[in-house]
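One such shown below:
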Amino acid sequence: MALETNRITANRLLEGKVALVTGASRGIGKAIARTLGQMGAMVSLCARNTQKLQSACHELEADGAKVLGVPADVSRHGDVTSLVQTTERSLGPIEILVNNAGIGHFAPIQESSEENWDATLDTNLKAVFLLTKAVAPGMISRRSGHIINIASLAGKSAFAGGSVYCASKWGLLGLTQCAAEDLRPYGIRVSAICPGSVATDFSPHSKKDPSKMLQPEDVAHAVEMILTQASQSFMSEVLLRPTQKP
């Protein structure tokens, strides 16, 4: 029993800290929010679908986490401003930001539309820019903070039909690296996690074995690893692959 108590205590290293997770109503985002709650953080969950967001909040509350659900479209400046203000008014200063919200459009470039380009880049890249700008001033004043961007191995490897999605993730890695350089003098650590295919309903994986794919909890574990790193260093980028090719 003593060993179990010590394990639980050790896992609550984020006790009292405030975390904001976007795209948190399902899949990777919900797994990350659950892990942060188990570590003691107060978690603000953000998503566009209000019904799914409420369901995720109820699920995490049942696990004992203190959570707040804030519906928002993070590609819109006004929504981002309201999201950050609501979170900080209800829970306190945001010390951890996980930019997870993302969408995908997969088709040959000649069949991709301007609308699909705009929607994908706005959600996967512009939203990260807006949220980082929104939380950075507070983190700078406190001289501490974590910003973790959920990127993708698609930000490093080209594949047919991936032009729009890959462009958004290549851009996200560039944004992450530059933001890390801008903010590290203030004690703020900016990192990217690049998973391979994860077993979620994000995109079809009809030719892959889900049991061999990464699980949402694998990405959440990488977030935990980054947040529990010693303060004198930071992991700027984590590449996450399944043990076996699915």
